[in-house]
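Risk mitigation, structural track. In case the binding assays with 2-keto-3-deoxygluconate fail to produce interpretable data, a predicted complex structure has been prepared as a fallback.
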Amino acid sequence: MPQVVTLGEPLIQLNAVTIGPLRHVIYFERHVAGSEANFAVGVKRMGLTSGLIARVGSDEFGKCILATLRGEGVDVSQIRIDDSAPTGVYFIQRGYPTPGKSVMFYYRTASAASRLSPEDIKPSFIKGATLLHLTGITPAISSSCRDAWEKAAELAHHSNAKISLETNIRPKLWSSVEARNTLLPIIPKVDIVLTDPDDSNILVGQKDPNRAAKKLMEKGPSLVVFKLGSAGSIAFSGRTVIKHGAYEVPVVDPIGAGDAFAAAFVSGILKGWRIKKSLEAGSVAGSLVTTTRGDNENTPSPPDIESFLAGVKGPERKIGE
Ligand code: KDG
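Fallback model:
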């Protein structure tokens, strides 16, 4: 059984090779992505075992996802091949209309993964794990996905598995009210929350990390981490507040940085690393992923994190603690 288990939609990403509106883009690069798949790959690179619960279509893209994740060493035994629906796809438009930023366009309605349901959850797969990782994307996909997500949380809650939640609220998938009404009730079961000011504003009406973390921790989680993009990251644990600066890297496509951060940070915590070192690992992973197209190809191993740090100079390397 893998140490870390997650559930959600693995997607084929078609990433624009050139910058600008998609109507003018001729070439796309194909990648395997999806927040939870990215997380599973990131955790495996960090030296822990990981597994993904999902569905893919019985099509070429489904085969590509299975082969890629299997090649990365992710446990794919709980990914069901669904003959009656296609694998989900999304496109990335880069650098337009905001230079340095990317925009996602989903083609995933009625996808195979949207049919994920509680019957796809094998209790022993979750009960045998050290950690269940959830995101705010899975329950936004369909009502059967939400039921599966809730069942997984319930199983982990009644076993020894800790739960991490990356809030990842995607406004293209649901409204703020739906997101709040679905995500807030699960927070008391969660041990580690990874979020950002936009999502915390939706959840607890606070963009300020200090105030939002306090409100979230009152509901149960012992560790709350804010990802602040170029302003770095900040972790709250009890009365301790630990900050870490962002690294300056040449950004090609920022999509996937949050998942890479989450995977490296959570892996660090599971390995018994201090919060400061785990934040550092998360920041390195998030930075590296932005330097290329694709969400998880650049997620690092611990030796790669060391090499990155050895090559980074200047005061931006770390900011405060
Ligand atoms: O976090 C990166 C993801 O947003 C991307 O891979 C696609 O999973 C995805 C989603 O639903 O947005």
